[in-house]
Design a protein that fits this description.
Elements: E1 4-7, H1 17-33, E2 36-39, H2 51-64, H3 87-99, E3 103-106, H4 110-122, E4 142-145, E5 153-157, E6 161-165, E7 174-176, H5 184-194, E8 199-203, H6 210-219, E9 226-230, E10 233-234, H7 250-255, H8 260-268, H9 283-289, E11 300-301, H10 304-316, H11 320-335, H12 341-356, H13 361-372, H14 380-387, H15 392-404, H16 411-425, H17 429-441, H18 449-456, H19 458-470
Parallel strand pairs: 1-2, 8-9, 10-11
Antiparallel strand pairs: 3-4, 4-7, 5-6
Helix pairs in contact: 1-9, 5-6, 8-10, 11-13, 12-13, 12-18, 14-17, 15-16, 15-17, 15-19, 16-18, 17-19
The chain binds one RNA strand of 76 nucleotides through helix 4, strand 4, strand 6, strand 7 and helix 5.
RNA sequence: GGUCCCGUCGUCCAGAGGCCCAGGACGCCGGCCUUUCAAGCCGGAAACGCCGGUUCGAAUCCGGUCGGGACUGCCA
């Protein structure tokens, strides 16, 4: 039987990191098994669902490289991957279950139900002990599934192993609301059955709902899917990954210039590993090795630091051309305008040096604004640390006059000139060159100095030295 | 409260009875390199929650305990 898995996001928000990770594992499993990966839109919450969120989710999945299979023939009628298109089907199933006696209409009031829950609570019992078919029959109201009390609901979870629930601890849950709309349990299970989903890999938060889904599937006369409940993701504060923590929506990472491959790699490491040693690996390697049964059952903490490191690894691994292509918008955004090709060449000459020291694409832009924008303000800390020392003005003056004589303005030529200078002046390279760095780039942290000067051009370089000199007390 | 899940370095993972006085990665600390910052290289600190049991032998199996989490809606 070919493997069919699905991811069922609700378009009530951006694609959450946790959902993305679940999608990733489903995708890996489908590709590993040569199966089918379906994206289903769980938009039964009409109030909160929006087309914008749906678009964001799909875009993010595409960006991550999780291509899904479309046009897959589905088993049931009303074939659609959108739950709001299938209300009739859900009603049909609920009605059928009532006819067969597996479900029943319940017209008890919220107050009555609340009372039953309170009673269970006070007696230390599960609400399932009391939320059962009422004596009086009804033809209206919500429809509840009648839980068979004959045997425990046991299943083999690919991640958790053997899991079992007592029927007493499962209440007769609502499958169709009194307004005729399906609950999540009904819609999700009917879809899984109709689409012939073979494996359901989802967050561990749904583990307690699983017996309900199994019972529902069985009531429909179907065989339930194999389940795999993935460990939940937490923030570095140990709490559930929430909006307060870093970025929880995947589109943020895309917009901030993270590489999809890096995010993919990092996410796949949350609850899984390729082997004991390998940290960096490709999609293909992951696909070849992945198995749901090898997913860890421990919750995982999402660590932005490690993602950042990994992003740096992937940026350094980029081909020079690809780096140039990806970084351009970020450089232009840092400079505040678009750059013409003559200017862009200046950047290209030091791109390799920038690439090495970039963890995020926007960082690269910040590193090189000095190439394109004259500045009046120097980095305050840098200035205080470097430019207030003894003999700074003398050093800059000397450098300026020596550099004026350089005609062949290349890093390889500039370097010996300045090195010769610090040597003749009897000062260390650090002491002699840092003032020049601050004068030319505005900061004591920058790409390598000689190459930066070369990229800037002779005229600009001398101008900047001059300008810095103007801000210094005369020697 | 109840049901269920989880418990190896700060964090992510490896470990499925002897290969483990526990391995890899991020982070951290120290060093080398070095014009700054990175990168790179070398080295270091850092964990089997606790108590019993099974066994010649336990991180690995069992029980208990403690701790954490999820769920407990006519939300998903």
């Amino acid at each position: 039987m070919t493997v069919r898995v699905r991811i069922a996001p609700s378009p009530t928000g951006y694609l959450h990191v946790g959902t993305a990770r679940a999608a990733l594992f489903n995708w890996l499993y489908a590709r590993h098994k040569g199966g089918v990966f379906i994206v289903r839109i769980d938009d039964t919450d009409r109030e909160r669902s929006t087309p914008q969120f749906e678009a964001d989710i799909l875009d993010s999945l595409r960006w991550l490289g999780l291509d899904w299979d479309e046009g897959v023939e589905v088993g049931g009628p009303h074939g659609s991957y959108r739950q709001s298109d299938r209300y009739e089907r859900y009603r049909e199933v609920a009605g059928q279950l009532v006819t067969e006696g597996a479900a029943y209409y319940d017209n008890r009031s919220p107050e009555e139900l609340e009372e039953l829950r309170a009673r269970a609570q006070s007696e230390g019992k599960h609400p399932g002990h009391y939320i059962r078919r009422a004596d009086r029959a009804a033809e209206t109201g919500a429809i509840r599934l009648s839980i068979p009390q004959d045997a425990p609901v046991a299943f083999d979870d690919l991640v958790r192993g053997a899991v079992s629930f007592e029927p007493r601890d499962i209440d007769d849950f609502v499958i169709l609301r009194s307004d005729g709309t399906p609950t999540y349990h009904l819609a999700s299970t009917v879809d899984d059955v109709d689409y012939e989903i073979t494996h359901v890999a989802r967050g561990e938060d749904l583990l307690p709902s699983t017996p309900k889904h199994i019972l529902l599937a069985r009531a429909m006369g179907a065989t339930e899917a194999t389940y795999a409940h993935l460990p939940l993701l937490f923030g570095t504060d140990g709490k559930k990954l929430s909006k307060r923590f870093a970025a929880v929506s995947l589109s943020v990472y895309r917009d901030e210039g993270y590489l999809a491959d890096a995010v993919f790699n990092y996410l796949s490491l949350l609850g899984w590993s390729l082997d004991a040693e390998t940290t960096i690996f490709s999609r293909a390697e992951a696909v070849a090795a992945f198995d749901l049964g090898e997913v860890s059952s421990n919750p995982a903490v999402f660590d932005p630091e490690k993602l950042a490191w990994m992003n740096g690894e992937y940026i350094r691994a980029l081909s020079p051309d690809r780096f140039l292509e990806l970084v351009r918008p970020h450089v232009e955004s840092a400079v505040g305008r678009s750059l013409d090709s003559a200017e862009w060449i200046r950047f290209e000459s030091i791109a390799g040096l920038v690439q090495e020291r970039t963890r995020f694409l926007p960082e690269a832009g910040e590193q090189v604004v000095f190439l394109f924008a004259d500045f009046d303000e120097y980095d305050e800390t840098s200035w205080g640390k470097v430019m207030t020392g003894e003999g700074v003005a003398g050093i800059i003056t000397e450098a300026r006059s020596r550099l004026e004589t350089v005609d062949d303005w290349r890093a390889e030529v500039i370097e010996p000139v300045l090195r010769g200078m610090v040597e003749e002046m009897g000062i260390g390279a650090a002491k002699g060159l840092q003032p020049l760095r601050v004068a030319v780039t505005g900061s004591s942290v920058s790409p390598p100095l000689f190459e930066s000067m070369a990229a800037l051009g002779k005229e600009k370089t001398l101008e900047r030295l001059e300008r810095a000199l103007g801000r210094l007390p005369s020697p």
